[in-house]
Design a protein that fits this description.
mainly alpha, Arc Repressor Mutant, subunit A, 2 domains, 6 strands, about 375 residues, Fic-like fold
Length: about 375
């Protein structure tokens, strides 16, 4: 990943005094601010009942994507069930965010549940100090079950100064230079002191620096990447309520090769200049805000649609079919498929189906002379 003999940023005499060219970040920061403004305006137009769903979607995307970046995968149905069981109560006011799950602070047998609780801690307690105890609890929550057993809290001499790092291609691992294990205690203390100090730069820049700093230190055998992304999420959430609805890991995962290339460039940056990393990170944050805005657009359009649908005397079967069409339905709906989905008689299905067409809740489309279909 890094050529032999290359200059390493953590060996610089001024480490870790990162520097950057602020003027070159102005355009990307302005673009991010505009996307966040648009997202905030859209959020103001939806009812509080939709915030729970938005939050669950962003948590789902964040969990799936941050694990995929480490070549780990989660069953989507298990994840959805875990999120539903958390019973999150949420609206557009940070002070009113609560997690009503009774097992939030207990012992866990389910590693996925520990993972979700970490992200709930990030998003529900963004103003809380990142103490060393909290930091190490997060690290253990993000590791695979048993992966830290017997290894101690930090990367030990057993794993040396070149721990494995997920590569730019899925299921690829590369050796990545990192500070020697005997430096890690002091490095973590220095990082946490900086992180908990008053902010002297834009929040997205602090989040980007924190993210990169932890990637460079590589303090844990496994889970450092997802910990770095969670800490960056903490900064974003603590300073901008729109951060609760973003999934930066999803956008990073969509640009995985570039993510690892930008990290590699920062790892060998001359004079601790991390401007290229910051520029890219800010751009990814803007894309995440834009994607979140698109999700809000979908929810707004669905709310408008249901407001129209409520004007008509729909039965439960019809409502269930419309809900399916608005969610995960693949292909076009026909009367035959309606009957299969609702498990009702074909004549009843045809009648109820034609009612939906008459109410203009679905429209007729013809893909072939003998294959009529309907869709929303």
């Amino acid at each position: 990943m890094v050529r032999p003999g290359a200059h390493l940023i953590f060996n610089h005499s001024s480490w870790p005094r990162f520097r950057w060219e602020a003027a070159t970040l102005t355009e990307e920061l302005a673009a991010l601010a505009e996307e966040e403004r648009l997202l905030a305006n859209k959020l103001n137009y939806i009812d509080n009942i939709f915030y729970d769903e938005l939050h669950r979607i962003s948590l789902f995307d964040e969990t799936v994507s941050t694990l995929e970046l480490d070549d780990e995968f989660v069953d989507s149905s298990d994840l959805k069930d875990t999120l539903s069981n958390k019973n999150i109560s949420f609206d557009n006011n940070l002070e009113k965010v609560t997690n009503k799950s009774s097992d939030n602070c207990g012992l866990y047998n389910n590693s996925l549940e520990k993972f979700i609780d970490l992200y709930l801690d990030v998003r529900l307690n963004p103003k809380k100090e990142l103490t060393k105890n909290r930091f190490f609890i997060w690290a253990r929550s993000l590791a695979r079950p048993g992966s830290l057993a017997g290894l101690g809290p930090l990367r030990s001499e057993t794993f040396g100064s070149d721990p494995l790092f997920p590569g730019p291609a899925p299921f690829s691992l590369v050796l990545c230079p990192a500070p020697a294990p005997n430096r890690l205690q002091g490095e973590i203390d220095r990082f946490l002191n900086w992180f908990n100090s008053p902010m002297t730069c834009d929040a997205v820049i602090k989040g980007a620096v924190a993210h990169l700093w932890l990637l460079i230190l590589r303090p844990f055998v496994v889970g450092t990447g997802r910990l770095a992304r969670a800490v960056g999420d903490l900064v974003r959430t603590s300073n901008n309520e729109t951060g609760l609805y973003l999934s930066l890991s999803k956008v990073i995962n969509q640009n995985r090769p570039l993510y690892f290339r930008k990290f590699r460039e920062a790892l060998t940056a001359q004079d601790l200049d991390i401007t290229p990393w910051l520029n890219w990170y800010i751009k990814m944050s803007a894309e995440a805000a834009q994607e979140a805005g698109q999700r809000v657009d979908i929810i707004i359009n669905q709310a408008i649609y249901w407001a129209k649908a409520r004007k008509y005397p729909l039965n439960t079967r019809q409502k269930n079919v419309l809900s399916l069409l608005l969610a995960d339905f693949i292909g076009l709906l026909t009367a035959e498929r309606y009957a299969e989905i609702t498990r009702c008689d074909n004549l009843i299905a045809e009648k109820e189906f034609n009612q939906l067409i008459y109410y203009n809740l679905i429209e007729r489309r013809f893909l072939a002379p003998t294959a009529p279909g309907r869709s929303l």
